[in-house]
Write the structure tokens for this entry.
Amino acid sequence: MFAFIVSRVLQAIPVMLVVAFISFAMFAYVGDPIAIMLGQDFTEAQRAALVTDLGLDQPFFMQFLKFVGNAAQGEFGLSYRLGRPVADLIMERAPATLELALVAAFLALAIGVPMGVYTGLYRNSWLSRFFLTFSLIGVSLPTFLIGILLILVFAVWLGWLPSFGRGDVVRLGWWTTGFLTLSGIKALILPAVTLGIFQLTLIMRLVRAEMLEVLRTDYIKFARARGLSNRAINFGHALKNTLVPVITVAGLQLGAIIAFAIVTETVFQWPGMGLLFIQSVGAADIPVMAAYLMLISALFVTINLIVDLLYFAVDPRLRVGGGGH
């Protein structure tokens, strides 16, 4: 197991270097950060001094190597737009994005898996058909439209929930949370539902398809022939064998939720990393954009490793097969 983890970490290093190079190269020649930082009125001497301070007078590969070296130490330079360390900006915004993503992922799993199991076991019932219709709507509608519709209904028409912002938050060390205030919880509901609907419907349809496939296998027929109860068959055998593909999709979707929370955070003006990235794009803030992409790539690499490790816990065939490695 240890050798497996080490090998995957070593494989991740060149992946991260490629991502760092692509992200840095994509943004290196976008906009004029000097004009953004100095404003409209500046002298050539001021411009030349700032170019030297930022290292923009160095060759591209020297800038890239410096960026990678600093990133390995958790330093991503200064934000061109705000003049603050990028690492500090991301640390400030990370709690909002992570809380939003975790709540959305929890809703997707807690609701999507039971709905998938039900529609797989009772595929001809009216409730199953309703769930399938709902899933088609959730898959078809774009995220920003779902968010706008939820704002229209629950914020404008009914006035139950806020339409933007994070509400009141409580600081616990460097972490800020909205779970401890009523306004924070209310502000979290609409963006979390918006972000989680697509994942919920995807997980539901995946679980349903896997349940239908597993229920047709020979070992399920053999279990029925042995006289096992439907509960033992459905949940002790069928559901357990659907977990491997569900773990794969759920793990990758967690990364996707964090990576693509940009749209939801923009619609609801949620003060997370996605909104920071969008604001940085408009200002050609290269350090922030490159750091964000590197962090998202590192997140996906980490999630892939965790998913592979969960395979060993869920599928005994992998544990037996991996014994010789």
